[in-house]
Design goal:
The structure is a homodimer of 111-residue chains. Chain A is an alpha+beta fold and 111 residues long. Helices cover 52% and strands 13% of the residues of chain A. The first copy, chain A, has seven helices and three strands. In chain A, strand 2 (60-65) and strand 3 form a beta hairpin. The structure holds a DNA duplex (30 and 30 nucleotides). Chains A, B: Residues 1-93 form the HTH arsR-type domain.
DNA sequence: TTGACATGAAACCATATGGTGTCATATAAT
DNA sequence: ATTATATGACACCATATGGTTTCATGTCAA
């Protein structure tokens, strides 16, 4: 099988406030859809769609139990975000690097 | 209805791969739009729109110098992302918390 | 002053996104 | 067996998003 095209990545998944709230909620443990829906002011279908997107990004696992689908958090994909952020660490960790960046950008001043 | 500001937040800003590439580029220092555009296969206008979105999120500063607009990186808003991510630290930092979450979600098993 | 250059602004377009409502189906409860 | 529940699958809709092209304007160079 060829690797899944991964329609939604973790950056997109996390971009929506509803989905971020979903992740926090699931941080407390596995929950069925109906239970989750109670925490939002939108329809069950809408919540389900958000969970689908989170699932495609690997942030959530689904598991059928009886007639309900239980969702649980998987934080592993957040490591990609963490890694991406770490690229910018040099801009906070010490003022010298910030100064260097400033000086480098200031070599062609014309006014 | 009242016209909402509809501003862009840092999560949305960072969701687009082009914009993430822009941030890396600007990590090397301030650059004028024309220079930036050369690194992408889209039109100058499109790049400009992306920079506008980054600017609204506070991730980029614009500065007019003669007839060009120079863009520079401001990583400060990324701290919000970092802070949000830190909420999930407990899921990686020790296996015990993961185990706890698992056990808590497993109290109503019916299989 | 004339013309090239860098950018902004606006109109437009196709597709993605975030929502809704309705209906079908599997499972649980009576 | 019948009914209530939980969910998924669709069809549909309005707006956002990411891109284009065209035109206007301010600035630099001859």
């Amino acid at each position: 099988m060829s690797a899944a095209p991964a329609k939604h990545d973790v950056f997109q998944a996390v971009a929506d406030p509803t989905r971020r709230k979903l992740l926090s909620l699931l941080g407390d443990g596995e929950r069925p859809l109906k239970d989750i829906t109670g925490h939002f002011s939108m329809t069950r279908t809408a919540v389900s769609k958000h969970l689908r997107i989170l699932s495609e990004a690997g942030l959530v696992k689904e598991r059928r139990v009886g007639r309900e689908t239980r969702y649980s958090l998987d934080t592993e994909p957040l490591l990609e975000l963490k890694a991406w952020l770490s690229y910018f660490d040099r801009f906070w960790e010490n003022k010298l690097s910030m100064l260097r960046a400033y000086v480098e950008s200031d070599t062609d001043e014309s006014s």
